[in-house]
Amino acid sequence: MDINKSTKKGKEMKRRKRGTGYINYDYENTFDKNLEDVEEWRIREALKAGRLKGIYATKTIKAGVHFEIEIYPEYTRRQAKEQGVKKAGKAQRNLNDRNARKRLRRLIECNFTDGDYWITLTYDKEHEPKDEEEALKNMQNYIKRINYRRKKEKIEKARYIYITERGEGKRKRYHHHVLLDGQQSMDIMEKLWKMGKRNNVRRVAADENGLGGLAEYLTKESVRKRRWCASTNLKQPVERKNHKDFSGARVQRIIIGREDIKETVEKKYKNMKYMSTEIRYNDKNKRYYIYVRMRERRKRE
Hints:
single chain; alpha+beta; 6-stranded antiparallel sheet; 5-stranded antiparallel sheet; 11 helices; 36% helix; elongated
């Protein structure tokens, strides 16, 4: 056998194999309409065309007691080109507002709980920063003072997330929201901030949704308009992905109401309790995105 022909054939097979790989695209923004806003005739049209079928990915994200499921179609490069789906670069994904908010919320849910601190730090007139760079430097110095104190007390470095904001209106004063583990006293947390005295240090109290309410409050506006920083010792949410849990046919049954999503996910993820579902639609490619929120069951549930 001709070695050159064999080599060329091998390279061609590798190229073909690469070409059948699924692209990484911004599915969060691709599906831009809520199912409630989609007319029934459009759903029927998609069903007749068989557009709901195909390969669907199921991604699960575990963050603390919270569990999320994202179900969305996958595309090869050729399919993406045919259906107008654009591949997303890493920088673009990181700048996406919806993704940024989810990432921040997951970090909060994964790392903080009852007894930790939610701190709001403000400035007096004497110490008001002239720009964002100075405001961020003030926060870095605050964290350094905390860690210096902890080192003396033989406590591990602080786990934290802080968000720097500039207020609206004429004064537009800077302030900071901080989530911090509760291993030091509230008095120390307040004394180590040297820039103002009208601060608020309180203990976090989880509700029915854990820290979901607090996380939503801290991410209620565009994350891109804020600067948030996190310590490097935070736990990361656990993500898993497969292509077998929810087929195109199963997605179709859910969309038309022949399969109950709550019953389905609680049966599959037995230790989790269903909380909510969001279904979105793309008018161009007639496909759907399903997002489910769950949480760990308590002993009495």
